[in-house]
Automatic annotation (TrEMBL):
Lineage: Eukaryota, Fungi, Dikarya, Ascomycota, Pezizomycotina
Keyword tags: S-adenosyl-L-methionine, Transferase
SUPFAM superfamilies, A to Z: S-adenosyl-L-methionine-dependent methyltransferases
All residue ranges annotated as the Methyltransferase domain in the record: 73-173
UniProt name for this protein: Methyltransferase domain-containing protein
Pathway note: Secondary metabolite biosynthesis
Length: 272
């Protein structure tokens, strides 16, 4: 484990958006989430089920993969609400790992969710940029699903490339392994746009540059040297920045959000 946590300053708007994130309201029987979609997002009652299924079509398959023993890594898990959502929906969390630079979040999340000692998931302090980190070395080639939401957009392109290469190395090198996330992107062509008041400007991707981000990892992660050469197939779905997040830089109309999925496939199955 890493160093002791520093004092954390929360922006209440940030915490509120975390707790109300769509990832928490996947389940059709989660009444608060349903109300949020119905009243806040103004999604008509008769479109709720299809809307949720459309946005979260992968979620049921991730749940069933966890039941089959798949290993899940949440990079920059923060309060780990997504791992809790999986647990709430009955998934075993024995093979779930959350990592964050700031270990103070782990304690706070147990207090918030009142589940100390209940989750089998393990949480570790780790810096994704320390590629020789013991944990990242230990889990090399063993993660079936890697979730990295609201994470890549913290960084400019060079650092995003570093993150993608590190993640590509921890992914199990076989078809079907997935990396996915939700993040800020560019409405038009990819470009560097300030997203947060502090920190470096974000490289906001298009589908083309997102595919290139993952293609760039293939060599270093040795994905073509597998018995059957592997490559990434990247898909993304655009959506508007939610109204409650359009504050400061995020009010920039050039910005949108994307849900993206990078899936390992047999290289022979792609046209490249
Ligand atoms: C914006 S939050 C995203 C939280 C969560 N994934 C979500 O979707 O709600 C970004 C998280 O990444 C963590 N983080 C930032 N830099 C990191 C690094 N170098 N290595 C690991 N975690 C990092 C932060 O501490 C924070 O918890």
């Amino acid at each position: 484990m890493g160093p002791q946590s520093q004092q954390i300053q929360f922006d209440p708007r940030y915490v509120a958006s975390l707790l109300l994130d769509e990832a928490n309201i996947v389940s059709a029987n989660f009444a608060a989430g349903r109300e949020l979609l119905r009243q806040y997002s103004k999604i008509p009652e008769n479109e709720l089920a299809s809307h949720v299924a459309d946005i979260h079509h992968l979620y049921p398959s991730i749940l069933s993969r966890l039941h089959e023993g798949a290993a899940y890594l949440d990079v920059g898990c923060c309060l780990a609400q997504d791992i809790r959502k999986l647990a709430f929906d009955g998934a075993p969390t024995t093979n779930c790992i959350g990592i964050d630079l700031e270990p103070g979040f782990f304690t706070i999340s147990e207090a918030l969710f009142r589940d100390e000692g209940c989750l089998s998931a393990r949480f570790f302090q780790a810096d994704i940029f320390q590629s020789d980190d013991t944990l990242l070395t230990d889990i090399r080639g063993s993660m079936d699903v890697v979730h990295a939401s609201s994470f890549f957009h913290l960084f400019g392109l060079p650092k995003q490339r570093q993150v993608a290469r590190t993640i590509a190395k921890v992914v199990r090198p076989q078809p079907g392994s997935l990396v996915l996330g939700l993040q800020i992107a560019a409405a038009g062509e990819a470009e560097t746009i300030p997203v947060f008041s502090e920190g470096e400007p974000t490289y906001c991707h298009s589908l083309v540059t997102m595919q290139a981000l993952w293609d760039d990892t293939v060599q270093e992660a040795g994905l073509e040297e597998q018995e059957h050469a592997l490559s990434w197939k990247v898909g993304l779905k655009k959506k508007p920045v939610p109204a409650n997040m359009r504050i400061g830089h995020l009010a920039n109309p050039k910005l949108i959000m994307v849900m993206w999925i990078a899936e390992l496939v047999l290289k022979s199955s792609t046209s490249k």
